[in-house]
Design brief:
The protein is an alpha+beta fold. The chain has a single domain, classed as M1 Pyruvate Kinase, Domain 3 (Beta Barrel), CATH 2.40.33.20. The chain contains five helices and eleven strands, in the order E-E-E-E-E-H-H-H-E-E-E-H-H-E-E-E. The strands form two sheets. Strands 1-6-5-9-8-7-11 form a seven-stranded mixed beta barrel. It has a three-stranded antiparallel sheet with strand order 4-3-10, with no helix packed on it. Strand 3 and strand 4 form a beta hairpin.
Length: about 160
């Protein structure tokens, strides 16, 4: 097996939002081709580019520092506030834009930036919104359905 196309990234967290509810943390989920993550409200929309959102774990501590955030509950549960689906560690996820990549059994296409929006400001405040600029993550489309789970590695499609 050729492992040259594996990157050092790892899936750390999975979250889905049912309708307008809070984000729910999962250990695994099925990514559905052309739709998004099973159980996530985005699957009800017809988005071609924003089916899944990814954020880089290492950016969280930078964002909290820039915003001078000290609310311990917010800090401990920050992934819920950012409203992203997948939290990736040990890889610069911006390198996935425009590329096919695999997490677990599912294949994705990085489609663009996931800029922080007014909803983030309403939830976390202007200081946090400002601190997130450039670190809001990326969007992706599901190109092949499959199960993904915590600890799955990221693999670039170099074929």
């Amino acid at each position: 097996m050729n492992t040259n196309n594996y990157v050092s990234g790892r899936l750390e967290w999975i979250g889905v939002r049912e309708n307008q509810g809070d984000i729910k943390s999962l250990d695994s989920v099925i990514a559905i081709k052309g739709k998004g993550l099973d159980g996530d409200k985005i699957t009800l929309k017809k988005s071609k580019k924003r089916q899944v959102t990814l954020m880089q774990k290492e950016h969280i501590s930078v964002i909290l520092s820039l915003a001078q955030e000290d609310d311990q509950d917010k800090i401990n549960n920050i992934q819920y506030y950012f409203k992203r689906n997948l939290l990736i560690s040990n890889y610069n996820i911006h390198n996935l834009k425009g590329k096919l990549f695999t997490i677990g059994e599912a294949k994705f296409l990085g489609t663009g930036d996931c800029k922080p929006c007014k909803k983030i400001e309403n939830i976390l405040g202007k200081k946090m919104l400002d601190a997130m600029q450039g670190m809001g993550g990326i969007t992706a489309a599901v190109e092949q359905s499959g199960k993904i789970k915590i600890s799955d590695k990221i693999k670039l499609d170099i074929s």
